[in-house]
Amino acid sequence: MAMPSQAVDLAWHECILHTRLYQHFCRPSLGRFLHHIPSEAMRAQASIRRAWRLACAREGIDSKRSNRLQLLFALDAELGIVCGFRYQLHCRPGDGA
């Protein structure tokens, strides 16, 4: 699944460098060991849609009628991450978003 936040992605990469701690974190937190897949190896469009649906489900939001960005999609902008990802609701191809 794509990671829609640069801040979370950087933290995640730092965590996976400490393999034993990461392994101990994964099982109770995620239910299984989560392998890292570089973004270049994923189909980006489908992967970001999946991240959107899962983030909506986690926050109890209708993924097709959301009136706000989920935390994972809003985090970089809220933290003012300079090279962070920026999203907006209801963007269409050609919107430049």
In total, the number of domains comes to 1
Oligomer: single chain
What summary fits the major beta sheet?
Answer: none
The radius of gyration is 15 Å
Listing every helix as H and every strand as E from the N terminus to the C terminus, the arrangement reads HHHH
Choose one word for the global shape. globular
Distance between the termini: 20 Å
Pick out the low-confidence regions: none
In DSSP terms, counting alpha (H) and pi (I) runs of 4 or more, how many helices? Answer: 4
Report the β-strand fraction as a percent range: under 5%
Strand-pairing-aware structural class: mainly alpha
Notable traits:
97 residues; mainly alpha
SSE topology:
Layout: H1 6-16, H2 19-30, H3 44-59, H4 71-79
Walk me through what this model shows:
- The chain has 97 residues and is mainly alpha-helical.
- The protein has one domain (6-79).
- Helix content is 49%, strand content 0%.
- It contains 4 helices and no strands.
- The chain is globular, with a radius of gyration of 15 Å.
- The chain starts with 5 loop residues before the first helix and ends in an 18-residue tail after the last helix.
- The mean pLDDT is 82.
Quick recap:
The chain is an all-alpha fold and 97 residues long.
